Amino acid sequence: MSCAWLNVPRPKPNAAIQLLCLPHAGGTAALYRPWAKLLPESIELVLVCLPGREQRCNEVMPADMRSLITLLGNAVTSILDRPWAVFGHSMGATVAHELILSLQGRNLCGPEHLFVSARKAPQFQEVGNLHQLDDDSLCQQLIQLGGTAPELLEIPELRALLLPTIRQDYHLIETSRVSSDQYLNCPITAMVGRDDPELTADDARGWQRWTNCHFHLHEYTGNHFYFSERPHLVINHIVQQLRIT
């Protein structure tokens, strides 16, 4: 099972549930590939491959959230063939939320669980301008978040390659607003690093307002990319919430 939008690095045809993972602004599916070996046999990892990166580097990212969700929603509904959950980190959390709202609005089957990582609840989102910063200022912001190696951003050729995609992603999330105030028909688990410069635990706790089901909040040691060095902790919590061994 694969398409331009979705990829399964380690197929598990007998898995009980599929875990769809969405990356942060400028991020790639590579962020989650190590998870394929860490997840139990009961959970199959499905990576979202966005345009403008990796094997899709020559494709253009949709200019607005609605267009992105339409394309991604079509891929999800045509390919996922079992119960599924979704994990979105930072921008990926916003995209995951909008995807579920869209599916519910079309009376289509949504996920068993939404995991939102390092992202403020929609009611706390503020107007942003990172996509309007000059290259040096944008690089400084990326270094502060901790997800990009500073030495990579010092290489002009790599900056020229990376920054357009990052800028487009930030434009997407900084110019869009939540499309509906509808509650989600699935549980939500919010995850946040205690030293994240972008949000607090209270900002993440606000996701409780968006579900008809139960809500959990997990805090971790670390910054915006708290799970980079200890992915086992996050995966253990995902497995616990999905109640699958």
From TrEMBL:
Q: Name one Pfam family in it.
A: Thioesterase
* Highest taxon of the lineage: Bacteria
> What molecular function does GO assign, one term?
hydrolase activity
Range of residues in the leader sequence: none
Q: Which SUPFAM superfamilies match?
A: alpha/beta-Hydrolases (SSF53474)
Q: Which UniProt keywords apply?
A: Hydrolase
Outline the extent of the Thioesterase domain. 18-240
Q: Which family does it belong to?
A: Belongs to the thioesterase family.
Q: What is this protein called?
A: Alpha/beta fold hydrolase
